[in-house]
Write a structure and sequence with these properties.
- The protein has one domain.
- By secondary structure, the protein is of the alpha/beta class.
- The protein starts with a strand and ends with a strand.
Length: 123
């Protein structure tokens, strides 16, 4: 049995000796999917690392089935990317955080509102 790392594309991130990349949905039952949908629906914004942003933008950002709870949330709410190298903001609603990233994230957390869903892979 091979070990997999990643969160979307089949050919993504195989660094560190991982044999496969991609998303393993086989363990998601209705209860887990309901929880994941609720997390995305509660989020007022999303905070990504540069690498994860690229993966999500290429997978979720190109979908237009906004009735899907995850697609709808990701494509209609603000997205923040912690990066000093991102130049292609190809996903609508994206703001790149650069410079003092810790201060930028603290500033985001201080804003009124609900939750910010954070997702990141190693930079």
């Amino acid at each position: 049995m091979g070990v997999m790392q990643g969160c979307s594309g089949a050919g993504e991130d195989r660094r560190g000796g991982f044999e496969r990349g991609g998303l393993a949905m086989g363990l998601f039952d209705e209860e887990v999917m309901r929880f994941v949908n609720e997390v995305y629906q509660r989020a007022d914004a999303f905070l990504f690392s540069r690498r994860t942003y690229g993966l999500f933008a290429g997978c979720w950002g190109v979908r237009d089935d906004l009735e899907n709870p995850i697609v709808g949330a990701l494509n209609t709410r603000p997205k923040y990317v912690a990066s000093t190298t991102l130049t292609d903001q190809r996903w609508a609603g994206t703001t790149v955080l650069s410079g003092d990233l810790a201060a930028a994230v603290r500033e985001l957390k201080a804003k009124p509102g609900g939750e910010c869903a954070c997702t990141a892979t190693a930079l």
